[in-house]
Design a protein that fits this description.
This protein is mainly alpha-helical and 160 residues long. It has a single domain, classed as Four Helix Bundle (Hemerythrin (Met), subunit A). The chain is 64% helix and 5% strand. The chain contains 5 helices and 2 strands, in the order H-H-H-E-E-H-H. The protein has helices at residues 6-25, 30-45, 62-75, 100-118, 123-156; strands at 80-83, 96-99. Helix 1 (6-25) runs antiparallel to helix 2 (30-45), helix 1 crosses helix 4 (100-118) and helix 4 (100-118) packs antiparallel against helix 5. The mean pLDDT is 92. It comes from Bryocella elongata. Pfam families: DUF5063. This is DUF5063 domain-containing protein.
Length: 160
């Protein structure tokens, strides 16, 4: 069996991240965003652990993120939904209002930071981006992806 290298796995993830970011930036339909999120989630679960590298040197500004937030906020037919931060908490937590627009924007921001940092990255900086993508998946954007997918699944289900 021919196993893929760590670099190949992360390159495939980079391509999926680019596709998701582009789809959000052009205001793609919800069904297209769902497909991108599913592919990203599956790929992120498979990202191998690597030693920590230097942090990405480029951060999306608040204004850049708000531009995407406003763009998709105008295009999406739905936004707010109910969620919990810790679904396994005992006793259960009270549900809180969450935002699909915020979920999609936060995912975009975490991925786009890495994509921008890779534009002029040496090998060490590249590994820093890879490490950060995996870390931020488990600590941040993976939670947003699951929340968004749950909403998209319910909203887009066939009525038959």
């Amino acid at each position: 069996m021919n196993e893929r290298s760590t670099a190949e796995i992360y390159e495939e993830f980079r391509e999926l991240a680019q596709a998701y970011c582009k789809a959000l930036e052009v205001g793609a339909e919800l069904s297209i965003l769902r497909t991108h999120l599913l592919k990203l989630y599956v790929a992120a679960v498979s990202l191998p652990a690597i030693p920590c590298g230097p942090a990405p040197t480029r951060d999306i500004t608040h204004d850049e993120a708000m531009g995407i937030f406003r763009l998709i906020g105008k295009k999406l037919p739905i936004d707010y939904y109910w969620d919990t931060f810790q679904p396994l908490a005992d006793p259960p937590e009270l549900a809180i209002a969450s935002s699909l627009v915020d979920d999609l924007t936060d995912i975009w921001r975490d991925l786009k930071n890495g994509l921008l940092a890779l534009e002029n990255a040496d090998a060490a900086a590249e590994r820093g981006v890879w490490w950060n993508w995996r870390f931020s998946f488990y600590s941040h954007w993976g939670h947003h992806a699951i929340g968004a997918l749950r909403v998209l699944h319910d909203y887009l289900k066939p009525e038959d």
